[in-house]
Amino acid sequence: MEVISLSQEILSVIQHYTPAYLATVDDGKPRVRPWGLPHLDAETGRLYFSTASTKAVYEQLLAVPYVEYSQTSPDNVWVRISGTVQFDESPEAKEALFKHEPQLANIYKTPDNPVFKIFYLEEARVTVDDYSPNPQRVYEFKNGSFTLLA
């Protein structure tokens, strides 16, 4: 198995403002909603997401901390990223997300707003696929690096 940094094919999908969705579990049933772009922390290789503690999705993440995120690029390549949710309350991570997504200031005003919650996925699995007959590529994310599985 080859250990790699975050693959260019994954970045080529998640860097676009294209439809993206996050799936959670609520009362044993799937819940899917549109979602914003993740932020890649270049130092740790983590993909960060944000939400508000006032949203139902936050309660769902606390109750069942496992999600799947999916996004499609303009050229119809898609990624599915699933993993265990880890919340991060560090000021540095919150400030980095504010820099990456300036519109967060319109919602939360400052990174230290207690309603502003961020999380990343631990032990994630990333699947990259498209409409071609080529096989999908599957990566595992563990300990800060991605390993190509298939």
Task: Briefly say what this structure is.
With 150 residues, this protein is of the alpha+beta class. It is built from 4 helices and 10 strands; from the N terminus they run βαββββαββααβββ. The chain has one domain (2-148): Pnp Oxidase, Chain A, CATH 2.30.110.10.
Overall structural domain count: 1
Tally of DSSP helical segments: 4
The CATH superfamily title:
Electron Transport, Fmn-binding Protein, Chain A
Low-confidence stretches: none
CATH topology: Pnp Oxidase, Chain A
Give the second-level CATH assignment, the architecture.
Answer: Roll
Helicity level: 10-25%
- The N- to C-terminal Cα distance equals 9 Å
Average pLDDT confidence is 88
Please give a handful of descriptors for the protein shown:
150 residues; alpha+beta; Pnp Oxidase, Chain A; ten-stranded antiparallel sheet; 4 helices; 20% helix
Mind explaining what this structure looks like?
Helices cover 20% and strands 43% of the residues. It has 150 residues and is an alpha+beta fold. The chain has a single domain, classed as Roll (Pnp Oxidase, Chain A), CATH 2.30.110.10. Strands 1, 2, 3, 4, 5, 6, 7, 8, 9 and 10 form a ten-stranded antiparallel β-sheet that branches. The model has no long low-confidence stretch (mean pLDDT 88). It is built from four helices and ten strands, in the order E-H-E-E-E-E-H-E-E-H-H-E-E-E. The chain has helices at 8-14, 56-63, 91-100, 104-108, and strands spanning 2-4, 20-26, 29-34, 39-40, 47-52, 66-72, 78-87, 116-129, 137-142, 145-148.
